[in-house]
Write a structure and sequence with these properties.
The complex is a heterodimer of chains A (about 650) and B (about 350).
Chain A: H1 20-31, E1 38-42, H2 48-63, E2 68-70, H3 77-81, E3 83-84, H4 86-92, E4 97-98, H5 101-105, E5 109-113, H6 120-132, E6 134-139, E7 142-147, E8 151-156, H7 165-170, E9 173-177, H8 183-198, H9 200-206, H10 208-224, H11 232-244, H12 250-266, H13 274-285, H14 309-322, H15 329-334, H16 347-352, H17 355-358, E10 380-381, E11 412-413, E12 419-424, H18 434-441, H19 445-451, E13 467-471, E14 477-483, H20 486-490, H21 494-511, E15 514-521, E16 524-532, H22 535-543, E17 546-547, H23 553-570, E18 577-582, H24 595-609, E19 614-619, H25 630-638, E20 641-643, H26 651-660
Parallel strand pairs in A: 1-8, 1-9, 2-5, 5-8, 14-15, 14-18, 18-19, 19-20
Antiparallel strand pairs in A: 3-4, 6-7, 10-17, 11-13, 12-13, 15-16
Helix pairs in contact in A: 1-2, 2-10, 8-9, 10-12, 11-12, 11-13, 12-13, 21-22, 23-24, 24-25
Chain B: H1 2-9, H2 22-33, E1 40-44, H3 50-57, E2 63-67, H4 84-91, E3 98-102, E4 105-107, H5 114-118, E5 120-121, H6 123-129, E6 134-135, H7 138-142, E7 146-149, H8 157-169, E8 171-176, E9 179-184, E10 188-193, H9 202-207, E11 210-214, H10 220-235, H11 237-243, H12 245-261, H13 269-282, H14 288-303, H15 311-321, H16 332-337
Parallel strand pairs in B: 1-10, 1-11, 4-7, 7-10
Antiparallel strand pairs in B: 2-3, 5-6, 8-9
Helix pairs in contact in B: 2-14, 10-11, 12-14, 13-14, 14-15
Classes of the chains: A alpha/beta (about 650), B alpha/beta (about 350).
């Protein structure tokens, strides 16, 4: 059964108020699909998917394209790449290929909403096809291949985690959408949406003229696009832009060039001018330069250019003011492990920190200052040391059947929860994959029908049985428990600590772990960051974290224990990692007794209660003459592995952790 | 079978007998009046009548027209959003027979697998006939109704993804287990959660149009009334329900009238600007809060049989729409920690 096409009223693309960048990117991609697709990043409720679907509807109703194929997150592999046609096999005894979404998307757009949540195995399927333009299928005794050229359109909310760099690079253009801040525009938006929800027909017919003229313009631009030429000096300009932004590589260049051609065609010109390039370059660079700062478009024009100069002068001046220096040094020095490393380099926050704060001579290196605890004067935001790449905390090849599809411990789901991704002929837990079983049995039906007597239409044998392989996204959860008290700040140890944490965070980013942060300081402990996949958020929080006050270690342990209980409740098979950043001192107890004894006792209980958790203590005590080594005591009470921040980067330590695991 | 019938015959706790919790009740009414408000998140501790209220809601829900026998509860009057079956029947010139029935509350249990939620391959049909047939899931049942999730914060992430996917366009697209299928799935999402057990993913949180914080009732008189009513209900469910019948009828009539009046409620430009300004000042992400605020304010007016939205309605709407959407600033709590008392 191939039944699609639930009809439903779609909000007209032409009626979307504001969001001009997003609309432009989508239009350009529709004009010239060779641009290679669009990624729309933005907060929830910014009409991302409305725009994509609206455009598809526009093209369909006006120009007759049926060019949007949607890939739902819960798709199974057989539906994406294609599989044996079960019905044909059973009824006619023929091995026929039933194409999947990749075939359907051929020649059009493949749309993935919430693309950052797409499971890894589906990402692989898409990447394979996108790379070669072909889908090669070898499964269930079938061997076939077909063209699969599509432009990938994705939308995502970065709050829910980032996209893999390989996939990111597959998108020709990307745009960042924000909520509109203009009141009048928002009013218009509100009015239209409410009208649409009450009476969709009214809005659709109300914008029919706009829709028609927009699709006509797209149609004309499509005709013009192949004829658009790019003057050779502008090609150099494109290369220069890519160079300056440190994204040299043919994909960025190509995307800029093609998008500029589409933009020229959209403007009704058959030759690319500087303005076209300037309009599209940020879209082609945004996701390729993984830096906080927006991409830089060099203001200088190639010398040959003369006729466009006057026209673009004003624009150039604007660019000139904002254009900072070419390639930033951090890229060359800090990153050794791929493009993501430079992502969260906290340069900006460094500047917010005045140096006076971190080398304040009045600050006593003791917690005697704790008396004046909550005075704002003692709150500091410390620098973050240079991050370094951490070696994996856990071995990647975790073959136990656990849940989690994060890549630190990618493991298969053992209970029947989780996403059914594909099937296996290995029998383990009775989780029958009927579709796969039927496909396995299908080719033999004709012969079996003659030998078996049954009222069933399908004869299934033991050897046909397939089971589901399920996967859950939740990778590891890293719970950071951070001492935010005065004693820690006084020792300036926070700088290194932050560096250590940041490095672990980057590792987490690559491994797609979830991160949570608990801070204890003053009189209690709070969850500064509930479990999130957004490492960006975590690192920003960490960077801005103020320090000061007493050290309620027990409260921190208590809060940590609560959170670990919650995590366990939600996913009993998860194995969180709790990382405590503390010098082990405690001077604010929950009860009556001495604070540090209470903390140690509590730590023992916590360790007993959370046997599924790996604990790591990072000692933040200053390496001065007198060391109390309280953190070591805490570590042993928690049954934790113990590190000093500077050792976190050492390979041996990583091996130690591996052994624990 | 017989057992099930018995349970169905025993009345549920009547909605109008629930003591207090006015905000929670209002949140539910507003969603019934305008389902495109798209949901209510109920936050609160255990034992605060959260689930009772949602389950009792069925009592006062309005009736809708559905195509007879359609597994997706298609609206015979909405030509544009029929499922494919009804669509093809309609294009063949068939007159779609319609029946009236109440809006349903469909519960999504936490243990539900993704297959069960989105729908799956009909096993019996596949084995008997060697053909693929779509077996509708919970999302199909929830179309045009209320999808209720108790402890929504504990829902499996994959199921949350599916809900998000579906909520975005009101269509459930299935591409799995050899089945390629889509059907309309517009529902009002009602969820309860105890924040102590973990927070909701921001993306999902945003899908709930409204949010109320429910607290335990502290007034001794009310508490006594709760206990008494509960006991009276347990002792004689039929008699108890009868006692509250008049009130229930009146409430459903008021809601029906509000649904009817919603279209006539007017919000002036000034009001629209006020709403936009409120949303911008609150610093919420995206534009959903503006739209929901407008709808909510209009629904409040309709509920009170007013034809004009005033600042009173906007204020009430804002208190339901904005709080759960306000962005928490990094380390907000940490910064405020010093000034807070312990416990």
């Amino acid at each position: 059964m191939q039944t699609r096409g639930t009809r439903t009223d779609i909000y007209p693309f032409a009626a979307i108020a504001g969001q001009s960048q997003m609309k432009l990117a989508l239009i350009l991609n529709a004009i010239l699909p060779a641009i290679g697709g669009v990624l729309i990043r933005g907060h929830k409720g910014t009409a991302k998917s409305t725009a994509v679907r609206g455009l598809a509807q526009l093209l369909k109703s006006q120009n007759g394209d049926a060019s949007l194929t949607e890939l739902p997150l819960c798709a199974t592999e057989d539906m994406v790449v294609g599989a044996i046609d079960m019905e044909a096999a059973i009824k006619e005894g023929k091995k026929k290929f039933q194409p999947g979404l990749l075939k359907r998307a051929n020649g059009g757009m493949l749309y993935v909403d919430e693309v950052n949540l797409l499971d890894d195995h589906l990402v692989e399927c898409i990447l394979d096809a996108a790379e070669t333009g072909w889908n090669r299928v070898e499964r269930e005794g079938l061997r076939t291949s077909h063209a699969a050229r599509f432009s990938l359109v994705g939308s995502m909310n970065p709050e829910e985690g980032e996209l893999r760099p390989q996939l990111l690079d597959r998108f020709g253009l990307s745009v960042q959408v924000e909520g509109e801040t203009d009141t009048a525009l928002r009013v218009e938006l509100m009015r239209r949406r409410e009208q649409f929800d009450n009476n969709p027909g009214e809005i659709i017919s109300g914008f029919i003229t706009e829709s028609r003229s927009m699709s006509e313009r797209i149609e004309q631009a499509r005709g013009l696009a192949p004829k658009v030429t790019v003057p050779s000096h502008l090609l150099k300009f494109v290369a220069e832009i890519a160079e300056v932004n440190n994204v040299a590589g043919h994909r960025a260049d190509l995307a800029i060039e093609r998008a500029a051609r589409a933009h020229a065609a959209w403007c009704g010109r058959d030759v690319v001018v500087v303005a076209d390039i300037q309009a599209v370059a940020p879209m082609a660079l945004l996701h390729r330069t993984r830096e906080q700062a927006p991409p830089q478009i060099p203001p200088s024009l190639p010398p040959e250019d003369s006729e466009d100069n006057a026209k673009d002068n004003s624009q150039q001046e604007k660019e000139e003011q904002s254009a900072p220096n070419p390639p930033q040094e951090e890229n060359s020095e800090a990153s050794k492990s791929g493009p993501v490393d430079s992502s969260d380099t906290p340069d900006a926050s460094d500047e917010q920190t005045t140096d006076n704060d971190s080398i304040n001579p009045d600050e006593k290196p003791d917690n005697t200052t704790a008396e004046k605890e909550d005075s704002p004067k003692e709150e500091h935001v410390f620098k973050v040391g240079a991050p370094f790449s951490v070696k994996p905390l856990v071995s990647d090849t975790d073959r136990h059947r656990r849940t989690g599809s994060g890549r630190r411990s990618r493991s298969r789901s053992a209970n029947k929860q989780g996403r059914y991704i594909k099937s296996t002929s290995r029998r383990q837990n009775g989780d029958l994959a009927l579709d796969a079983t039927l496909r396995a049995a299908a080719p033999f039906q004709k012969s079996r029908r003659e030998t078996m007597a049954s009222t069933m239409a399908v004869h299934i044998r033991e050897s046909d049985i397939r089971e589901k392989i399920r996967q859950r996204r939740m990778g590891n959860i890293l719970v950071f428990v951070v001492d935010g008290s005065g004693s820690m700040g006084a020792h300036k140890r926070m700088v290194e600590t932050k560096a250590a944490v940041l490095s672990v965070l980057m590792d987490a980013y690559q491994k797609r772990d979830q991160v949570a942060v608990i801070v204890f300081r003053g009189r209690n402990a709070v969850i500064a960051l509930p479990p999130t996949s957004s490492v960006e958020l975590a690192s920003r929080m960490l960077t801005d974290m103020p320090i000061g006050g007493r050290t309620p270690l027990s409260a921190g342990l208590g809060r940590m224990s609560d959170m670990l209980t919650q995590i366990h409740r939600k996913n009993p098979l998860s194995r969180p990692i709790a990382i405590l950043l503390t010098d082990g001192k405690s001077n604010a107890a929950l009860g009556e007794g001495p604070a540090h004894l209470e903390a140690i006792a509590l730590a023992g209980k916590v360790a007993q209660h959370h046997r599924n958790v790996r604990f790591i203590v990072v000692d933040t005590e200053s390496p001065g003459a007198i060391r109390l080594r309280l953190a070591q005591k805490l570590a042993s009470a928690l049954n934790a592995s113990y590190f000093e921040p500077e050792n976190l980067r050492a390979k041996e330590i990583v091996n130690v952790i591996k052994e624990i695991v | 079978m017989h057992h099930q019938t018995f349970i169905a015959d025993r009345p549920g706790f009547p909605f109008s007998a629930i003591v207090g919790q006015d905000k929670l009740k209002m949140g539910l009414f507003l969603n019934v009046i305008n389902p495109t408000i798209s949901g209510l998140l109920i936050r609160g501790e255990k034992g605060t009548a959260k689930s009772t209220a949602v389950r009792a809601l069925a009592d006062i829900l309005p009736s809708i027209e559905v195509v007879k026998g359609c597994p997706f509860q298609c609206d015979p009057n909405a030509q544009a959003s029929l499922c494919f079956q009804c669509q093809s029947r309609a294009t063949m010139g068939e007159k779609l027979e319609s029946v009236k029935r109440k809006v349903k509350v469909v519960e999504l249990p936490l243990s539900a697998t993704e297959d069960r939620v989105v729908g799956t391959l009909n096993m019996e049909h596949a084995l008997k006939h060697g053909e693929k047939k779509f077996e509708p899931g919970i999302l199909a049942a929830a179309h045009r109704g209320i999808l209720y999730i108790d402890e929504v914060n504990l829902l499996d992430d994959h199921v949350v993804d599916v809900l998000l996917d579906c909520a975005a366009m009101g269509v459930n697209t299935v591409e799995r287990e050899g089945i390629s299928f889509s059907h309309p799935a517009k529902f009002t999402l009602v969820g309860t959660m105890n924040p102590e057990e973990g927070e909701l993913r921001p993306q999902l949180q945003d899908r709930f149009g409204l949010c109320v914080q429910v607290e335990g009732i502290t007034d001794p008189h009310q508490r006594v009334a709760i206990v008494k009513r509960r006991a009276a209900f347990e002792a004689d469910p039929f008699g108890f329900t009868k006692q509250f019948e008049a009130e229930s009828v009146q409430l459903s009539q008021q809601i029906d009238a509000a649904i009817h009046n919603y279209g006539d409620v007017v919000a002036d430009d000034d009001i629209l600007f006020d709403i936009a300004r409120l949303a911008i000042e609150a610093g919420v992400d995206g534009h959903r809060s503006d739209i929901v605020m407008l709808k909510t304010a209009k629904a409040v007016a309709a509920f009170h049989n007013r034809k004009q939205v005033s600042m009173d309605e906007v204020a009430e709407a804002a208190s339901l729409v904005l709080p759960h959407r306000m962005r928490r600033l990094p380390f907000d709590d940490v910064l405020n920690m010093g000034s807070k008392k312990v416990g």
